[in-house]
Write a structure and sequence with these properties.
- This protein has about 400 residues and is α/β, with parallel strands linked by helices.
- The protein contains twelve helices and 13 strands.
- The protein has a single domain, classed as Thiolase/Chalcone synthase (Peroxisomal Thiolase, Chain A, domain 1), CATH 3.40.47.
- The longest helix is centred in the first third of the chain and has 17 residues.
């Protein structure tokens, strides 16, 4: 059975739709800047979607008098685009919606808490009603008209990858006819302060895989893909989802093992599911957060698999930031288009190789390359690591 990718949707700090995202990647336009839409004492760059919540609601033609979490708004924007792109009628198929998030409605909970902490009789309860991670999923599904299988996955930064993997398995077992899968996350004080407490935020624009890398930049956005069995697709797919796997090295709550065991396990297993040898991978969309630990661990795992024949690879996180639960949703969209159009994306800010890594990423946007199979990585806290393989449909 072949699982086809038939629809794409993405919003990030570099674009409100898929085409805007790709144009920014092509022209080298990143989304980093000082936080504009929430207050923080941390002086670090972030990649925000360039619109207020009210502006996002207007773009989505939502009731301006209602309150929506930013996570829900971003997710709806990307999911609508993916469904429209696939041309599926959600009322006539067994359609599932599998969404992921880390922050949920925390942006609204923070507003509530500002009043509540001074007086426990104050604060608008409607703001905390969307706190749960599942609230944004239910809202988006309702807006899309999907009422069948609806669920939420929250496994930190591997969340969207796991959502996509679950969607593929549901199709393979004939439990659904189509799946909208991916993730959404919004920036807020909670995540920014949390990563700040780990001392892994770079005060400058991040530099994945560079010898001078000093930490990550956070971002926000959403990305979803539509999956269908090939025989059910009404149009030619972008590509196939041929491999997927999750592994957990359980090395540390927030760090990766020096040997890259989790990354090695997920990449190896995903390629095995796809029936591919390392020599058949043409491009790796690496997790590449730009933290000293992550990049070295991921590179070590890549070396273990590919030896001296490492295929072209790059991280897009210097463009969009680390979007946490949304990261593999957005990057799955990029990976599908890499297969479809032969895209290889630039790894911004790379200047000098780290001797401990011994690898140099791609630094220029390329198109029309022979890209048959893309390996895309998403690694989360606790060593929860997921890898996906996207392959040409022909």
């Amino acid at each position: 059975m072949r699982i086809a990718v038939t629809g794409l949707g993405a919003v990030s700090g570099i674009g409100f739709c898929v085409s805007e995202n790709i144009e920014s990647l092509r022209t080298g336009r990143h989304g980093m800047g000082k936080p504009r839409f929430f207050q923080t004492t941390l002086d670090v760059p972030v990649s925000e979607v360039k619109a207020t919540n009210a502006e996002l609601a207007k773009r989505l033609n939502l009731n301006a008098e209602r309150t929506y979490s930013r996570t829900a708004l971003l997710g709806l924007m990307a999911a609508r685009e993916a469904v429209a792109d696939a041309g599926i009628d959600v009322s006539k198929k067994r359609v599932g919606f599998i969404s992921s998030t880390s922050v949920g409605g925390m942006d609204l909970s923070e507003v509530f808490y500002n009043d509540f902490r001074t007086d426990h009789n104050r604060g608008r309860l409607r703001l905390v009603s969307q706190h749960d991670c599942g609230a944004s999923t239910e809202f988006i599904a309702n807006q899309l008209g999907i009422s069948g299988f609806v669920t939420t996955i929250s496994t930190a930064c591997s969340s969207a990858g796991n959502a996509i993997m679950l969607g593929a398995r549901m199709l393979q077992h004939n439990m659904l006819d189509a799946v909208v899968a991916g993730g959404t996350d919004a920036l807020c004080k909670f995540t920014l302060n949390g990563f700040g407490s780990l001392m892994i935020l770079d005060k400058e624009h991040c530099r994945p895989f560079d010898a001078t890398r000093a930490g990550l930049n956070l971002g926000e956005g959403a990305g979803y893909i539509v999956l269908q069995r090939s025989e059910d697709a009404a149009r030619a797919p972008y590509c196939l989802l041929t491999g997927y796997a999750n592994a957990n090295d359980a090395y540390h709550q927030t760090g990766c093992s020096p040997e890259g065991n989790g990354a090695f396990g997920s990449m190896s297993a995903a390629m095995a599911v796809a029936g591919l040898q390392p020599s058949e991978i043409d491009y790796i969309n690496v997790h590449g957060t730009a933290t000293p630990n992550n990049d070295l661990s991921e590179a070590t795992a890549i070396r273990r698999i590919f030896g001296d024949r490492v295929p072209p690879f790059s991280s897009v996180k210097a463009f969009i930031g680390h979007t946490l639960g949304a990261s593999e949703g957005i990057e799955a969209v990029y990976s599908a288009l890499s297969v479809k159009n032969g895209y290889v994306y630039p790894n911004l800010n790379f200047k000098s190789a780290d001797e401990a890594i011994g690898l140099a990423p791609e630094t220029e946007f390329a198109e029309g390359r022979r890209v048959r199979n893309v390996l895309s990585n998403a690694f989360g806290f606790g060593g929860n690591d997921t890898s996906l393989v996207f392959s040409r449909a022909d």
